[in-house]
Amino acid sequence: MFSGFSEIDIPLAGATIHAKVGGQGAPLLLLHGFPQTHVMWHVIAEQLAERYRVIVPDLRGYGDSTALDGDMTFRAMAADQVAVMRALGHERFHLVSHDRGARTAHRMVLDHPEAVLSVALMDILPTLDVWRTMDDWLAKKYYHWMFLAQPGGMPQALINSDPVMYMRSALVGLSGDVGMFHPAAMAAYESAAGKPSVVDAWCRDYAAGAGVDLEHDRADEGRQFDMPCLILWGTKGAIDHHVDPLETWKAWFPKAVGQGFAAGHFLIEERPEEVLAAVLGHLEGTG
Predict the structure, then answer these.
(1) What is the phi/psi pair of residue 128, to 5°?
(2) Domain residue extents for the chain
(3) What percent of the chain lies above the pLDDT cut of 90?
(4) Span 225-264, pLDDT tens digits
(5) What is the pLDDT of residues 270-284, one digit of tens each?
(6) Nearest to 26 by CA among 8, 50, 57, 51
(7) Strand partners, 55
(8) CA nearest 283: which of 72, 93, 15, 82?
(9) What's phi and psi for 254, nearest 5 deg?
(10) I need a labelling partner for 185 at 20 to 30 A (CA). Which of 1, 37, 195, 245 fits?
(11) Torsion sign across C-alpha atoms 131, 60, 273, 51
């Protein structure tokens, strides 16, 4: 995995960010989601590095990154990654993202639009739209949105009694099958889940997503960006059950293009060749 990539740790004011870096060309930042780590990108990172300078970090609190100040808002996570890219000499860069990483990417565009050349968002709806469309069907699919956001350390205590079991159940709940994950990738996800600090970060992340992140998004609702934007999703998942993902995202990115794949939530690992082709087409189309 990640042949030709080097590993770095970048200390920031509120976090230390662990990342892998490889390739040459225009800078490209890849952001992962829950309950994974940067390792999820192993299926396409080396191919992307043949054309781009690829930076693959763990979000603060996830994997081998740490959240020193306990702030797990998307605003903090976005600011981290802009600081990482600047530390590496990249003032502007392309952004490809999935799940919580895609929500971080959306916030990055809102807070730091000058830094983002193009953005790809995979298998999410805008956070406001998720909560607006939350009904009994979606609540069963996304029960973790409510569970992880509970206060008082309750979800942390329950998960830490068997963190690997919980992580695997989260993967199954969102994908239907853990068999599609590479054994080395699964080992990395299990290792991360075994850290109480990572479990705490998961919970703080979702608590922010049910609270202050919504306040931030409501304050920015109505803003639009004309940057190139790619929307991808799995048609076997949940996000196109109530609304059209592409049309929904056009409220923020009027020029967005995209498509669904016959996959679940983890479409990058389930359909890597198709996702890679779509991402490369998007990036090459931005010039």
Answers:
(1) -60, -40
(2) 6-131+212-285
(3) 95
(4) 999 999 999 999 999 999 999 999 999 999 999 999 999 9
(5) 999 999 999 999 999
(6) 51
(7) 21, 29
(8) 93
(9) -60, -25
(10) 245
(11) positive
Q: Is 107 within 8 Å of 71 (Cβ atoms)?
A: no
**Is 265 noted as a catalytic residue in this protein?**
yes
**CB contact at 8 A, 60 and 14:** yes
**Tens digit of pLDDT for each residue in 111-142?**
999 999 999 999 999 999 999 999 999 999 99
Q: Considering all CA atoms of the chain, what is the largest pairwise distance in Å, rounded to the nearest integer? A: 49
pLDDT at 287: 62
- In whole angstroms, what is the distance from residue 186 CA to residue 175 CA? 14
Q: Average pLDDT of 10-16? A: 96
- Residues 33 and 39 sit within 8 Å (Cβ to Cβ): no
Strands (E), 5-141: 6-11, 15-22, 26-31, 52-57, 66-67, 93-98, 116-122
Reference 31, options 86, 80, 88, 98; nearest CA is: 98
Distance in Å from the first CA to the final CA of the chain: 28
CA–CA dist 122, 268 (Å, integer): 9
Distance CA 127, CA 138 (A): 13
* Structure tokens that stand for 9 in this block: 């740790």
pLDDT for 63-100, tens place per residue?
Answer: 999 999 999 999 999 999 999 999 999 999 999 999 99
- Give strand pairing partners of 29: 55, 95
As given in the structure block, the two tokens for residue 106 are: 């959306």
Please give the structure tokens belonging to residue 44: 């396409």
pLDDT band at 29 (very low <50, low <70, confident <90, very high): very high
CATH class of 6-131+212-285: alpha beta
Give pTM, 2 decimals: 0.97
Radius of gyration over every alpha carbon of the chain, rounded to an integer in angstroms? 17
Question: Among the options 99, 123, 129, 205, which is catalytic?
Answer: 99
**Residue 196, SS3 per DSSP:** helix
